[in-house]
Amino acid sequence: MTAKTSRNESQGRGSIPSVWARRRREPDQPALSRAAIVREAVVMLDADGIEALSMRKLGARLNAGATSLYRHVATKDELLELAVDEVLAEVVVPAADAADWRAAVTEAAGSFRATALRHPWLAPMLGQAGLAYLGPNLMAFSERLADLFAAAGFPEPSRAIDTLLAYAIGMSVSEAAWLTMVARSGESEADFVARLMPTAREAAADHRHLADSYAAPPPDPAGLRDDKFAYGLDIVVEGLARRLGG
Amino acid sequence: MTAKTSRNESQGRGSIPSVWARRRREPDQPALSRAAIVREAVVMLDADGIEALSMRKLGARLNAGATSLYRHVATKDELLELAVDEVLAEVVVPAADAADWRAAVTEAAGSFRATALRHPWLAPMLGQAGLAYLGPNLMAFSERLADLFAAAGFPEPSRAIDTLLAYAIGMSVSEAAWLTMVARSGESEADFVARLMPTAREAAADHRHLADSYAAPPPDPAGLRDDKFAYGLDIVVEGLARRLGG
DNA sequence: CGAAGATGCGAACACTGTACGCAGGCCGGA
DNA sequence: TCCGGCCTGCGTACAGTGTTCGCATCTTCG
């Protein structure tokens, strides 16, 4: 925004047309391009969450007007699709290894979760648009998972993929939402938990089991989340192994 | 909107203040109330999806101005929280039965999925706000699940709940997103699949396993979704059973 | 009857995504 | 060298959003 203003001022472009007010692109700024737009969108999404991303702000960051973006991107939704696929490139899936497919699958799911937590807008986004994205990185991710399960001997790898991903997405989506709340509060996770505790306890008042789980504030919330994910992942993988005929 | 306009016209209220232009509430319309607002919001969400719900449109449907809603609801987000909790009341969880906890758990998850598909905005919403909602119906739902798992002998029922719900949410979120896309297309699910097929095949071109799964269009997409959910659910429940020591 | 509080709402504000059409730079052909 | 067509950027504008404010009205109680 500041950059754009300064350009307008320094070059006198805008409302007053004039021969001297010519437009000259700064050579260091690498021009507007789809790749640059998507990259900057990811940065903004990471920094301030999904509802803080507007075409105008994004344009300003790129020293461009809001509507210039539409030369490279059809619509905001399309831009978000591109952003999703962009960060999905970060998910690493180990190469197929029939001997220890359980470790490989566990690692892949963990990498997905890590990516989703690094970009807390990813999981809700995947949720809103589903897996019908067809972006190249999502395809590659699925294919590598399919490799893994096929090598392990699953007759229908896509079934196993769907199950594993449903778990990973479900867990990540909840976790990302939680982390977003925490981030918005400005407090540390532990402080936030402590502040929420009374309300939670009241809401769980007439529920025996829930009251138990809200009894004491957890000492290490982040570690607890790791455990929770690992615990459930183990259960899913165990179930898959049984299905395979272990 | 039409209703509101007609009231304004018929009673002459609005821009011209006049002694005769008095406001009289139709006695059949049961006045604005939080419950009525939430109920109507759910109807609108079900009908046209989440991005079609605006405070103005909702107000119009209730023969009220947009800003009147704010007397009963602090903000739109709060309204959405209330709507989420409202529909969560539809999820039925069988009473605790130690003998056949697997069937009970399976049924609970199925009911959750059915609810999520009946209200396709629910799953994305739960994803965006997480399970930190603390609404009474969500609490009751969790408590009943905890009952189930505790009766089955799980030492930490909350762990089992988290795992099961992560799977159910992940699967439902994807499915709801898919159904939303289908609905927006105006076509039947089978037709939509057929139209998407070429694009999908192209995107999967250099991926062996994916290409296989896109080889032929499925004859019964809805039934296939049911199968997929049941398959994964079975795996999760199996894993839980193993963990229990069965 | 009259005061106090609850309720509805019109107008306004600061935003949003996006369509349109103009202006200027870039590039291939005469 | 000039010229025409294309690609790119963007100012303006439009319809819509959530929400605030202050006024008008209704309801209720003393």
UniProtKB/TrEMBL annotation, chains A, B:
Q: Which residues bind DNA?
A: 54-73
The residue ranges flagged as biased composition, category Polar residues, are 1-13
Residue ranges for the region (Disordered) are 1-27
Entry keywords, A to Z: DNA-binding, Transcription, Transcription regulation
State the SUPFAM superfamilies in the record.
Homeodomain-like, Tetracyclin repressor-like, C-terminal domain
Q: Give every HTH tetR-type domain span.
A: 31-91
Q: Which PROSITE patterns match?
A: HTH_TETR_1, HTH_TETR_2
Which InterPro entries does this one have? DNA-bd_HTH_TetR-type_CS, Homeodomain-like_sf, HTH-type_TetR-like_transc_reg, HTH_TetR, Repressor_TetR_C, Tet_transcr_reg_TetR-rel_C_sf
Q: Name one Pfam family in it.
A: TetR_N
PANTHER family on file:
HTH-TYPE TRANSCRIPTIONAL REGULATOR RUTR, TRANSCRIPTIONAL REGULATORY PROTEIN
What protein name applies here? TetR/AcrR family transcriptional regulator C-terminal domain-containing protein
**Provenance organism:** Streptomyces millisiae
List the top taxonomic levels of the source.
Answer: Bacteria, Bacillati, Actinomycetota, Actinomycetes, Kitasatosporales
